[in-house]
Each structure stands twice: as structure tokens, then as C-alpha cells.
Amino acid sequence: MALPFVLWIISLNLSPEYCYQFSLHWTRLDVPDSGLAALVRLSNGDMRKALNILQSTHMASQKITEEAVYLCTGNPLPKDIEQISYWLLNESFAESFKLSETKTRKGLALIDIVREVTMFVFKIKMPSDVRVQLINDLADIEYRLSFGCNDKLQLGSLIAIFTKARSALVAVRALCDKA
């Protein structure tokens, strides 16, 4: 009886956040805003996926926090992506290979890291031509990973494209300083 009511609410084409909040209220789960934001982000607007994530996370931990949602789904935490992005943008080529250790220690897939770093690149302030080239190169890596290419080789490619982007950013900054 309750399931058709929930499906009716979903069919109203309301915002995903509203539908998720309604579902949380209906299931009487206490989810902090950060947990809800993680649920919305990882489900990509798919209510079935959101309910599956919610159920899995609730079974794995009593509190449905942002960290619990990310750990339950196996996605990299936002703080991990920030750290990885920092290494890629600021460390030398050799130093950036510590990403491999982090990937192994936390059980992350390189394709998930590439997808999350791609979203992070959109948040960083940089010239549009550098951003476009970086996004294009990240898409190429994701494409190659989806066909089963060697992770270590693609990790080197990931570090190389950020090294190239960093060089382009330094060149743009030098041009701006001259002007």
C-alpha cells in the first residue's frame, strides 16, 4: 500500500532532493545534511539507486553520514579527491606516484578517481583552454580504462596530463605578469 504512494510522489517530477527527503521521512531515518548531499550526488537523480544506497549504508552502519555513504558505495571520499588533486597539481611527477599507494591502501579504482578528479577540475579556477585540454585528456584516460588498459600506465598518463596542465598554467601566469 505504501509503495504505490511513494511511486506516485516520485512521478510528480519533484526535485531529487525533495524526493529523497520525503523517503527519509517516510522510512524514519535520521540522515544529516552531509549524508543526504552524498546520497544525492552518488545516485545522480536515480531514486532506485538512492534507495539501494540508503538501504546498504543503513545496513553497514547505524549513522548514515557522508563518509558512510561513500565507503559503502566504494567511491573515493571528497577529501581524498582533494588530496589527490593537490598532489597532481603541485607535486613533481615522481612524488605524485604516491597516489598509487593511496589507491591500493583505500581500495580505490583508478577509473573512479579519474571521474571524481574530472568533477573537481570544474571547481578549480583556471583558464578555459587549459581546463578544456585537461578535461579532454581525462576523458581519454577514462575511455582507455573502460577498455581494460593497464592501470599503472594510465596512472602515469594521469600524472603526465596534470604536469602538462601545470606547465600551461605557469606559462599563462608568466604572460599575464608581462602584460
TrEMBL record:
CDD domains given in the database record? HLD_clamp_RFC
Q: Its Gene Ontology biological processes?
A: DNA repair; DNA-templated DNA replication
TM segment ranges: none
Indicate whether ATP-binding appears among the record's keywords.
Answer: yes
Primary place of residence?
nucleus
Q: Which residues form the signal peptide?
A: 1-21
Which Gene Ontology terms cover its molecular function? ATP binding; DNA binding; DNA clamp loader activity
Where does this protein reside within or beyond the cell?
Nucleus
Could you tell me which Gene3D superfamilies the record lists for this protein?
Answer: 1.10.8.60, 1.20.272.10
- SUPFAM superfamilies reported in the protein's UniProt record: post-AAA+ oligomerization domain-like
**Domain Replication factor C C-terminal as annotated: residue spans:** 76-160
Query: Listed GO cellular component terms?
Result: DNA replication factor C complex; nucleus
* Keyword Transcription assigned: no
Keywords linked to the UniProt accession: ATP-binding, DNA replication, Nucleotide-binding, Nucleus, Signal
Q: Identify its protein family.
A: Belongs to the activator 1 small subunits family.
Mind telling me what this protein is named? Replication factor C C-terminal domain-containing protein
Which species is this record about? Gossypium darwinii (Darwin's cotton)
